[in-house]
Amino acid sequence: MKKIADIFKRKGTLNIIISPDEPVLNALKVMAERNIGSVVVMKNGKYIGLITERDYARKVILHGKNSTELTVGEIMSEYLPKASLESTIEDCMEIMTNHNIRYLPVFEKDEFIGVVSIIDVVKETIFLQKNTIQDLQNYINFAG
């Protein structure tokens, strides 16, 4: 079974980081510039949460609040479930589905590694399916 470590081998572990004291608008600008849907929130070099487009939509826009006055720390998601590098792709899909989340922080022991998104999981699943199809086609061609 493929593991989260395989996703990171393919995509790398570059983490886009923001401070909890930054205005929400700054996080939105970073997400727009990088074409990403979440930013890792760190304080003193430690992971403390994620801020996502969903956090913005549900905690700022729907409540008529101002993204220049609110800080990242006020709306970030803090208590997300976690995965490890040894977690399988299936484990991640189950966790994300059960918790209705799109981003999953990954830790190895207490060390923050990065974030896996639902898009990463889907891409890895498609990659695995393509490889399986290719293997089957090769087998059929070889056997025939």
For the largest beta-sheet, the strand count, sense and barrel status come to:
3 strands, mixed
The secondary-structure class comes to alpha+beta
Which stretches are poorly predicted, pLDDT < 50 over at least 5 residues? none
**SS field, number of helical segments:** 6
* Strand line-up in the sheet with most strands: 1-2-3
Written account of the structure:
The chain has a three-stranded mixed sheet. The chain has a two-stranded antiparallel ribbon with strand order 4-5. It is elongated. The chain has one domain (4-143): CBS-domain, CATH 3.10.580. The chain has helices at 4-11, 24-34, 53-59, 72-75, 89-99, 118-143, and strands spanning 17-18, 38-43, 46-52, 103-108, 111-117. It has 144 residues and is of the alpha+beta class.
Brief account:
The chain has 144 residues and is of the alpha+beta class. The protein is built from six helices and five strands, in the order αβαββαααββα.
Which features characterize this protein?
alpha+beta; elongated; 3-stranded mixed β-sheet; CBS-domain; 144 residues; two-stranded antiparallel sheet; 19% strand; single chain; 6 helices
